[in-house]
Amino acid sequence: MTKILVIRFSSIGDIVLTTPVIRCLKSQIENVELHILTKQQYSLLFESNPNVDKIHKWGKENKEVIKALKTERFDYIIDLHNNIRTKKIKSILKSKSYSFPKLNVQKWLYVNFKWNNMPDIHIVDRYFEAVKPLSIENDQQGLDFFLPKKDEVDLSGQFGTTDIVSVAIGAQFATKKLPVSKMVEVLSTIETQVVLLGGKEDHDDAEEIIKSSNSNIINACGALNLNQSASVVKQSKVLLTHDTGLMHIAAAFKTPIVSVWGNTVPEFGMYPYVPQNDDLYSIHEVEGLACRPCSKIGFQKCPKKHFNCMNQQNVEEIVKSIESHLS
Question: Which pTM does this prediction carry?
Fold first, then answer.
């Protein structure tokens, strides 16, 4: 038996983007046992994945985690996080390890000097560089997201209809989100039932959107867990989203995606991954801004104070993209 440890600590979208590698390792290596090392709060993303045999949770008792990992005696470690912490773990475990090109220098040059030397390669395909030495090939089947039955949402029972436009209004950083006023402009023209998805921290913004909009909108922010939100996305006609984890979950379900980009750029390689199905998603960004990208992650406020990357978004084009999936 071949025993392999795959490392990816966070976050939602990045973990979903590892699923093709995990699937191909499982299907292309005979008699393989696949282990995952991830942060405790993200372990649920692997729990329903049939390709994963064991999950090791990185949290408070990490000495015990390392001790448990040592006893496994892995044949290989596939490092899909590639940072100082994973390098330390690999040095302790002493198994043969492989990683992927993180392109930190290229990202730094793009953010700080606007020199775009990023290769036109999606991060999923960069992840596959880590398993090339094991003769693993991309099966081009896209992303996976496995829903436990207990979290499947009955759209008719929950929202009174199965004809849904989902909107992921949140994001980890404010500079990745449309302002509430701009979101109101977009949603005021949508006649189909709209469901706003997000965490408890997005609830107040959702209420403000509803108060200012003429559309038929339901606020589900904070009312659903991640898997339940994913279930809604799976059944939706289309998802309107920022550069977020739900965008990648939608790609796994082949749900049409209308993505709106602020301070981050698709050139970083983390746009929706739907091989041979590019018509399933659209990208909306304000091109030609001298300040963009201002970060590879994001900020809580626009460093330039004008927030042109979102304030100048073309509302009509966003609406047109949404409606193209409703006809």
Answer: 0.97
